[in-house]
Amino acid sequence: GEILAIEPENPLALANMGAVTFQLDDYKGAQKYLEKAVGQNPKLVQARVTLGMAYFYSDDLYLAISNLTRAVHDEPGNAKAHMYLAVVAQQAGWSRAAEEELRKAIAADPKYAEAHYNLALVYIEQEPPAIELARRHYFQALELGAAPDEKIAAKVK
Question: Region 8-15: what's the mean pLDDT?
Fold first, then answer.
């Protein structure tokens, strides 16, 4: 907060305050800081990703999708941005979009355990479930350090 006292409009300081506020689970407060930060410097992709998740946790899927889509557009190699966009898309009921974003996350970072894990979940939840693909990504996630999950393990046996 000291930088904000000196420079209340500094986009990096605003982004940092937004990130801290987000960590404290104050999503509305985080939105205020992060909106100002990306309004002044649209290239702050990580701030936009956090803003997207702040909207997601405030149950505003459309603003979450809007910000996360902008983040992946501005930084296509940002694996985390793709992964979070996938999580929001899945929540919105768009499993094909979620699958696509998770594939992009893994293409950007093949060792991203959480993306492999979430892709396994997407494949299990498909109709019909894609068990072989789910198995492959689940075991890849475990190999990369993800915690085992009994429900998934039972489905991919």
Answer: 87
